[in-house]
Amino acid sequence: MPKIKILNKTGKILLTKTYVKNIQEIAPEIFTLSFPRTEDFRPGQMLAVALNIDEAPRLYSIASGNKEKDYRILFNIQSEGFLTPRLSDLKVGNRLFVSKPFGSFYGTNKADYWIAAGTGIAPFISMMKSGLGDNKTLIHGGRALESFYFADKFKSVLNNNYIQCSSITKAEGIYSGRLTEYLNITENLALDRNYYICGSSQLIIDIRDILIRRGVPYNQIIAEIYF
Amino acid sequence: MIKENLFGKTLSELQEVVIKIGLQKFVAKQLTDWMYKKRIRSFEEMHNLSKQTREKLAESYDISYTTSTSIQESVDGTKKYLFPVKPHQFIETAYIPEGDRATLCVSSQVGCKMGCLFCMTGKQGFQGDLSSGEILNQIFNIPEFEKLTNVVYMGMGEPFDNLDEVLKSIEILTSDYGLGWSPKRITVSTIGIIPAMKRFLNQSKANLAISLHNPFEDERKKLMPIESVYHLTKLLDEIRSFEFSGQRRISFEYIMFKGENDQQRHINELARILNGIKCRINLIRFHPIPNVPLESSSNETISRFQVGLKRKGIITTIRASRGEDIFAACGLLSTKELVKRQKNEDY
Questions:
Q1: ipTM of the complex
Q2: What is the pTM of this model?
Q3: C-alpha–C-alpha distance, residues A105 and B123, integer Å
């Protein structure tokens, strides 16, 4: 990975001006936002995004493949959030400021497990669209069916290795219960594989504790926390 | 109506407050004298303010302290205070006397969102940021206040994830209108949020401590998820490019984990990556916490590690374990209290 400069002298993340190419509400209060890709990136990396050059940016995992023309990010509206309510109001052509890709939550070619809930799915859709999905198992947690963003795309590549856990919806082919419950009871946890987890700190901590309790060595667990 | 607490506001913030309610700007300075220098806890006691001014302030504001609800004392004199912050939220503050020094370890957040594998505080998740007043309350409101020689921001939370409030609290500790402490008495510890670290270095003169714990990025990532976002090498590049002046110190915290980060290759890599940085490494014994698959290196290994680093020219100290019998450093008390309260609520 080339070394990139992401900070200026005062510690501000370096941002460049770009514009909205597409914005879509893919589920209630869940949006994808696309803008032109300017740099190569490795799936799993993130971008810092702001609406004004002088405000503190927020970090978002890239949710597009590394061969696509545009960057895409996934976000949900945080009602008291500083940025997401304003991001959701953006229209095609509106201005925004974006950093170069950075971070090292990289996908691999190995038969890893991916575990995510909510918008934590973003790095994994990027990895899959970048050709890293073939041998993966994705365990995806959500409340209702509409919470399984990109489910069709994951199903088409991962087939039976796409496991959905819904805490409130009962449907064929979906584990009825929380993601953490599934991890506690499933007999199909390979102890010799790497586990990539993305989500909130509480989700990461809960899942990591379960995996460790079930015998997965801690150094096979790689987490990306939504700070 | 819940009144806004003025304790913890900087002089410029207080000036805005007093002007907003139609008082003279100089009243703000009088407030800082009473709150921070004289540690007065009610407007009534502020004798050089007119009755009308005191009443006006008391209409909308207060300056009250929060007292600790629990104190644990170790056989070695270390004390751990538990302060309530909001309903069902608690923070821990550790008072650590040692010879002619008395250090207070303060929290900057309730819980933490950084998810470091070895940290008990992380297990309770993140519940909120502390205000500057809530940070300072831990300092001003312990019986040992007058004895304090140092304050370290190494309690619950990541200080650089709440930098605005941390910087305000440091301003009040170090400015003439506040306690007037030397910034050398203050150390802020971070896991390495680079943009915030650069801001801290530019806007404060306090010492910096970095939780390092493993010099190899791939290994550090598995202990500390922040490594996936802000790499250690970039962090160190930023430190190298900063001009440390005067007696401002930078140190690296290194918890010793048996078989994980205590080998010769770690010594070699530490020496390589810290080359050119005038610093100190503090080696710390790990105090086991529940459900964490890590053990502390033995005392012999830690001593050998220290010798190895010293041979490489790095000033290395072994931090004395303090308050082990009360788990002074690991967030157990507040986590236990949180669980207890949640259970009460559920039933």
A1: 0.87
A2: 0.91
A3: 22
